[in-house]
Structure formats: C-alpha cells, structure tokens
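Blinded run. Sample ID left blank on purpose so nobody reads anything into the name before looking at the predicted structure. Input follows.
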Amino acid sequence: MRAFFGNNKYHQMKTKIVYAVVSDEKDVYMEEVFLSTYSLRRHNPDAFVELVVDSKTDATIKGDREKMLKYVNKKTVVNVPGHYNKVQTSRYLKTSLRQTVEGDFLFIDSDTIVTDSLAEADSLTGNVMMVLDYHVSLQQRYNAKSVRRRLEATDVDWNIEMPYYNSGIMYVKDCEESRRLFEVWHEKWKNNVEIAGIHFDQIPLAYANEVTSHLITELDGVWNCQIMNNGLPFLNRAKIIHYFMSFASIRAAKPYRFHDKQLLLDIRKEGDIPAHIADMIDRAKEMFLIPNQIAAGSETALLNNSLYKLYISHPRIYSLFNTIACYILKISGSK
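Blinded prediction complete.
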C-alpha cells in the first residue's frame, strides 16, 4: 500500500468492511470495487476488507485483474448455482452474506466513494442497520406505485407506512437475530426468482423485515448518501457517497462525475488509480457536472415522467412535442 495509507492517526476498526462482486473481463464492476476500496483506504487505512465473489468471477481474477485486489485483505469464494445469470448471482451473494462472512461487518456496494472515517461503525448498536431507500418514506416517493406493484407481485403485504430500506450499505452484527433475517431474505429472494422471475433484492428484504418484526433499524443517511435521490442534505457530512452507476444509463446527462464509465476504463488501462482520478476521489463531494440546477418538490416528477424518457430515447419526437407545447403557451398568453 502507498505511504499515505499508513497514517497512524486513524482508529483501527473492529468492524469488517465487506464488498461483493460478480464480474468478468466484459464489464467494469471489478474496477468499481477497486475505485471504492481505494477511497476507503484513503480514510480507513487499517480497516479489514473482505471481498466476496462467486467461483466464475474468481476464475477471471488473474493477471491485471488480480492487481485490483491490492486493497483487499481477504477474498472469499462462494459456489453459486450455475443457472443464475450475473445480476442474479450478485443478488445471491448479497442476500447470503451473513451466512458467508464471520463477525460484525459493514457491507458497501461497489458504486460508492468513501469520504470519511468509518470507525464509528464500531459504536453502532443495532443488529441490522440500513438507510431508507431514497432517504424518504414510501409516502414521499415519486415511484411508490411501482414499489407497491413489485411488493404485491411477490406476496408482500403492502403498507404505505412500512419502512423500505436501501441495501447498498448494511451494518450487520454477528448474532442470531441478523442470521434469521438473512435466512428469510435469501429464501424469499430465491423464491421470487424461481416463481415470479423477479430478481430485485430490496423487495424480499422488506418481506424479511416484516417477518422478523422490523429487526432492521434506521441508519443515519450520512452512511449511504444516495446522491441521485434526496442525498443533498447528507452530502456535507457524508461518510459514503452512493452514486448509483445504473442511473448513468437512464439520464440524459451524468450529474455526478463518477458516473463516467471512461474513468473505470482509465483504471483498467493504468492497472491502478491514475493521478487525475485520485484527485477526484479527494474532492468527491465537489464532483458534479456544470451546468447544473437543483430540482425539488413537485419539480422532481419531471425527471421521472414519460416526456423525460422520450427526451432521452427519441429526441426528435420530443422536440416536436416541445414545439407544440411552446405554441400552446404562446397562444394562451403564458410566459
């Protein structure tokens, strides 16, 4: 490790840091993990990091790809049933982590940038702790109807007041209660895939939380600052920025600079973290595309309606609709 990872002012964490990845040479998921673990080491040089992979992924970790494990202390290989695709295999690993990893751990998704010390994880008291998905209740979500459809399609009783958590960052104690939740979660996830063909992991997580009498307790949003959804109030104190790489494919622009896939390709080419990306990591809370504007309240609906999707997928057709709208506004006297 580089010299700056040896600063002894940092607290040595007792809580293990865990990542899980399913990857091969055709994707950039391993590069995401490399980027995140590098950022982790900037602020947590003494953390113990365990990477959980499936056997197919493990077979590809050689040569240059093996170099991307330089900030990992332990690699754990899980034999996942061969009929699952890559996305499903990734969910399989996540929902079975408690059965795979020993000790208390903090799981971190790969599309993240760690921006501060995580030593406070040692003082967390819940058995399982997570941040609310999108940082809001279901009542406040623009896509609550979509969540409801997914829950009901997998026989989960809908309740607008039920807590719905984001599984991107999870604090998990090593105890019987957490093992029970993960057992229910994993079995429900497998059932959803086999019976309903639904691979989402947060749907069965909500079910498992209900079955275990709401074992999950809420974690402060600074641990999982979901920068694309209501994360702004947590950005200044954020410990982990969760930038949701999947959003890059459904937005016309890439608001957060780490959405740029070219950064990950640069890492692959360099075989390490290039200087310009290291600088970006050190300024992760500033890395936003300019120009930008803040949309809030009812305005956020504009980014999630059909016209915006039309703007992305069929810009010429959108332009026609926009011209018609301008004409209507003009003859109606609206400014």
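Unblinding after everyone has recorded impressions. Confidence is low (pLDDT under 50) at residues 1-8.
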